[in-house]
Amino acid sequence: MASPIRLAFTMGDPAGIGPEITAKAVRLMADVVGNGDAEFIVLGSAKAMHDIETRMGLPAVNAQGHPFYRMVDVGPVDAPFVTGEVSAAGGEWAYRAVAKAVELVQAGEADSIVTGPLSKEALHLAGHLFEGHTELLAHLTGQRDAVMMLAHEDMHVSHVTTHCALAEVSRRITPVRLRRVFDVTREALRALGIEQPRIAVAGLNPHCGEGGIIGKEDDEVIAPVVREYADKGFSGPWPGDTVFIKLRARQFDAVVAMFHDQGHIPVKLLGFKVDPETGSWQAISGVNITLGLPILRTSVDHGTAFDIAGKGVANANSLVEAAEYAFRLVRGQRKDAKALSH
After folding, report:
1. Cα(140)–Cα(4) distance, rounded to whole angstroms?
2. CATH of the domain at 103
3. What does the pLDDT look like over 287-316, one tens digit per residue?
């Protein structure tokens, strides 16, 4: 029998919806713990978890009479936090949870990290000057060239650049960076069970530069690297305004986007469901996967939602989906390790 997959859930900023969606998600997935396929570890503020579970009247144990998860409190943090408010204390709790989760994976005590939402503002107030989870995890693992992939159902979008000003994007698109993104994107898709992935590369400029009329990067930088990878299933560059339609039509398994909004907007447009009459969220789906690190990490693809924190109305679908992707990646990793050992 295979050993259980151990997921380390970081609750993110405890003043946001992280504690609530974590409490809901581990209960929605209680069956995989009950049948021995998984173990859940939650890192963050034990008090925040206890308070929200009590407020929502959630059961303390599963059908087998066991806790839904093992709690690892990463406090104490000297200053208090207030639910629904940005603070240095909330940023410190979030940072410590991620740092401890990395330690667990590196020590072989967990197989993957599943992160809840944190506030970049709170993180900075706490003195941790990172642009987001991806950059924080790269720092903690000593890996500087991590890659962000967003996933929604069978859509996969990786990014050459992420959290930088648009004026910086073209400078950061280099052959070295492109090759790195191409390599880890293909590896991830194969780990997810797509043996021969078809990967489209989006162009940087409108209409891929129109032959250099409105930008030369597509012809001079991107296209030559795509040609290098043609025998590995890569094609392009494709115009950014049509390539995601082809992805949705399943002509491709993934798209490599050149910058943050190019890749984020189509995934979030499909993953965020809105009630057309009230304008309220009905469901939030989508997963953020960090590639190219010595550890596995998946995450929700939404923010802290301070405005609804503590009210018991937050949707845990994205966190459940993130955990499911972590399961798939760990299984793929174990399959590859087993194949290499024979």
Report:
1. 26
2. 3.40.718.10
3. 999 999 999 999 998 899 999 999 999 989
CA torsion through residues 333, 339, 340, 342, sign = positive
Domain membership of residue 229 (yes or no) is: no
Query: pTM of the predicted model, to two decimals?
Result: 0.91
Pair of tokens at residue 106:
């590196």
Q: What is the pLDDT of residues 247-260, one digit of tens each?
A: 999 999 999 999 99
Amino acid, res. 138: A
Q: Are 157 and 255 in contact (CB under 8 A)?
A: yes
Q: State residue 298 phi and psi, 5-degree precision.
A: -125, 165
Which residues, 6+ apart, have CB-to-CB distance to 143 below 8 Å? Answer: 292, 293, 294
Q: Quote helix, strand, coil % in the chain, to nearest 5.
A: 45, 20, 40
Q: Is 317 contained in some domain?
A: yes
**pLDDT < 70 regions, the chain:** 1, 280-284, 341-342
pLDDT at 284: 67
Q: What's the domain count of the chain? A: 1
Query: Is residue 7 a contact partner of residue 112, using CB atoms and an 8 Å limit?
Result: yes
Distances (CA, A) of 6 to 41, 44, 335: 7, 17, 16
List the alpha helices (DSSP H) in 133-292. Answer: 133-141, 166-172, 175-191, 217, 223-228, 243-248, 260-271
- Note down the domain range covering 42: 5-146+293-341
- Does residue 231 fall inside a structural domain? no
In a domain, 73, yes or no: yes
